[in-house]
Amino acid sequence: MLLLSTFVVVLAGLSGAKPLASKRWNNVAVKHRWVEIPRGWEYHSTPPGDHLLDMRIGLKQDKLDELISSLYEVSDPAHERYGQHLSKEEVDALVAPHPDTVEAVESWLLHHGINPVDAQFRSASGEWITIRVTVAQAERMLDTKYGVYYHPASGSSVVRTMEYSLPAELHSHVQMISPTTYFGTMRSMRSTSFIQPQTTALVEDADSFAAEISPLAVPASCGTTVTPACLRAMYNTTAYVPKATATNKLGVAGYLQEFANDADLQVTFFKSFRTDAVGSTFTHVQVNGGLNTQSDPGVEANLDIQYTEGISFPTPNIYYSTGGSPPFLKDDSTPSNTNEPYLDWLNFILNQTTIPQTFTTSYGDDEQTVPQDYAISVCNLFAQLGARGSSIMFSSGDNGVGSGDCLTNDGTNREIFQPAFPASCPFVTAVGGTTRVNPEVAVSFSGGGFSRYFAQPSYQTASVTPFLTALGTKFAGLYNATGRAYPDVSAAANGFQVVIGGRTSSVGGTSASSPTVAGVVALLNDFRISEGKAPLGFLNPLIYSTAKSGFNDIVSGSNPGCGQAGFTATTGWDPVTGLGTPDFLRLQALVA
Ligand SMILES: *[C@@H]1O[C@H](CO)[C@@H](O)[C@H](O)[C@H]1NC(C)=O
Ligand SMILES: *[C@@H]1O[C@H](CO)[C@@H](O)[C@H](O)[C@H]1NC(C)=O
Ligand SMILES: *[C@@H]1O[C@H](CO)[C@@H](O)[C@H](O)[C@H]1NC(C)=O
Question: Active-site positions, per UniProt (predicted)?
Fold first, then answer.
């Protein structure tokens, strides 16, 4: 109500002062520009001027610094605020834009004939405004031209632009506007898993197999054929019985066209690999038109849910299927969904009062393909989840230090290592991959390196510096020594037995590692909660300090890529396996 009357006044004021008002918005400056079309995409055509877009405006958060310092305090085991996570209301208050920011953005919208009260969506804190505009209108507002761009590899078409501008005054108020220069869509992004046809999948009834594994000896077979029993033995969770199942939850974030299949999990997978769980299930939550097509199980979705359940059972698991309206079709009047990874899901989850204490996501992109202002927006949303008390795991990617020619997209065409986002966000826990047992070694595809967008957070300096010192001048210029270093931890990544459409396949990728670590973290959260303590929340300040000795250091293997040998796993932290793989029993003692 208050908003409404404010607009009326502003509107009335504007009509009398039009020249002044337009002058206010005349001086525009580029907000983001690509020098070349993002790799993998090609220009297709001009979109119709009346094509509708849902324009999402991210307003600068007034007390972001306070949010980040709160996040670090409540996540640092040495701080008196440790474990005192923030409520939704407390976080919303910190991320709300300053009234001057709201005024500036709303005046600009009014100048373009858009009444902000007609917004499709405003987040509770006011930091996001979504308005429905035509392409022609968006082009006027952002001083740009949109194109239809096509991604042959995935068949995706999107309406995007090579650059956009904003009035100079708005640069200090607006974090980012989409859809503009971020071309990634769920379909063009990589999910980090792949079927491994070369490995023989377990075909026989594996009941006996599951029973054979003693928690104290990890059989050699686990080096090539990974089951929940293997992982529970390797990471010492076999004997732990969850108790806080009324409170503790584990969330899997899945995206477009990936559905987790109930029958595959309940009947086939549990019967073969986790007999005590037969018949139990997980919750499906559909976000923003996400579907739940049981006839079309996804490899990634089934891998995720089968292994989070396989380790954390009977902890309740939730599979979030985030959709979006269909991709761009020229003659379709439906607004083309921005179809952007993370933002829909993050806006949805951050709007819930109670959220799972542990999350895993297995999607990623080369950092350089994500505009920096966009990456910062998304990364800050993960900070909100951490401040609320959730641990966020992300797979580190399956391309070692980078895939393909690894050329920069800034016009200079230099060859550099290609860090992955969101693994490079300092507010998530990035999970790399290992293979074999007794001992585990780094798997060659394990994504790792150093961000070029995010500075190295202080929580990891003491662990990363020895690695860099030992590396010396090797690979100088190919990576950013002052950037956020990842992965943080790792887990098995090869030969996971996954049931897809009733058949067992062998699946690999760091997207096997991320749900594995999430399963272990969910059990640690169960332990903490059942002892009347807070969940672990944002893990990194803890695992790089007091809980460091809870990981099995992985000391051999490397992650080649970009035509280079890649980094080498070594004693202590390394950009192949991070701090190592989790030992639940040791971690349990360390977080008690
Ligand atoms: C965890 O399991 C590994 C491998 O089975 C074993 O070597 C280690 O001692 C175990 N840790 C604890 C604390 O029991
Ligand atoms: C946020 O939650 C409130 C209260 O549950 C609900 O009314 C609103 O529609 C939600 N908004 C979004 C975008 O989900
Ligand atoms: C290295 O990372 C920092 C952030 O720590 C960033 O400001 C800088 O631009 C990066 N340099 C390169 C060459 O990527």
Answer: 300, 304, 511
